């Protein structure tokens, strides 16, 4: 090693190169015979210097990332077409059936707060009390900084609502899917997912390294065929579906999916982000809606950001699954525990949901009314079942942005969905319904939508 030290002075002093040289040294030590001496180190450093010289400027600057180039092109197009950007608008106050944007009170059809519990006095109070008692953060993972009763109470309530043994709360709904799928499954496994699966499901599958197999939207027969083809050549199989699809407002045939997964000895995971609080007479989700025993589903997943008026996510299922995730899911084990005010808000929202099932009934009847009125006016609502999400399919992205802006001018906010979030030609305006809307608000929104739609098609 003294020889290597001596030769070290001939090698580059640049810190980055030095670090890489050390790494190469370590690697070469593992792979090359010790009799080789240190000439190979200098050769490796020469190769490295040549390689660095050949690195393109495009690969060293954020403004050369293709995604940034696409964003710039889109912004230019919006400017050229004199379109106002309908995204990232700033809201003031607590949004309910109305929201204040740019100082104007607008009808609000752009919130996932389907049960109108964000800002509910009891939910606010619970969050305040949790801050007073525990502070705003638990500052570290639950293994390190310990647990808080409110986190455990939330998990027990979620497990009881889902009719399973246990639940585990995470700090984000997106992270819940990524870490659960990503850390439970492995490259020898196969994961089947609905073609309209949320990005967090796809990111989780990518992290797992498992073979990813999409199947056509809600098509359990196609899934059955794909499982028959591929199940045998993989170790474990997972099927991931959602309780209610937020792009289209439709729902899967849960009993059929349960039957398929059972026949092929696969796990079934259901993401209830948009169906808890929305489906079933008590809002207990798609199992209640479909009359399926919740234990037939292996992994229940949900977010706390929608009907639970907080932020975070959870997994509910058999005790073994939850014990496994407590140590296996990096997004739980290496991430901070859910913040007390968020856990308390979600817990209280679940209590209100159970104490006031009329909220769920009102949401469902508002959704039905929106859908019926839209259909009467000849609006293309696709496959929506009208529970909490009703899309108006427009087609072109530019038309969709123009419509969103025109409706905003009239005083209603909703969510435009344009390319690349959907294929070009499939752009739409999405209306999220709330139990807080009254009949007149629903009628006004549909009337304005129909009027603006006929204006852009004229
Ligand atoms: C189906 C689905 N799963 C997961 C998530 C992620 O949840 P969160 O936004 O709470 O992180 C979303 C978000 O909208 C979703 O729609």
Explain what you see.
The protein has 458 residues and is of the alpha/beta class. It folds into 3 domains: 54 residues, no CATH class; 130 residues, Aspartate Aminotransferase, domain 1, CATH 3.90.1150; 235 residues, Type I PLP-dependent aspartate aminotransferase-like (Major domain) (Aspartate Aminotransferase, domain 2, 3-Layer(aba) Sandwich), CATH 3.40.640.10. 47% of the residues lie in helices and 14% in strands. It has 18 helices and 14 strands. Strands 4-10-9-8-7-5-6 form a 7-stranded mixed β-sheet, with helices on both faces. α5 packs antiparallel against α15, α10 packs parallel to α11 and α16 packs parallel to α18. The longest helix has 20 residues. The protein is globular and about 85 Å long. The chain starts with a helix and ends with a helix. The chain binds pyridoxal-5'-phosphate. The site of pyridoxal-5'-phosphate (PLP) has 14 residues, from α8.
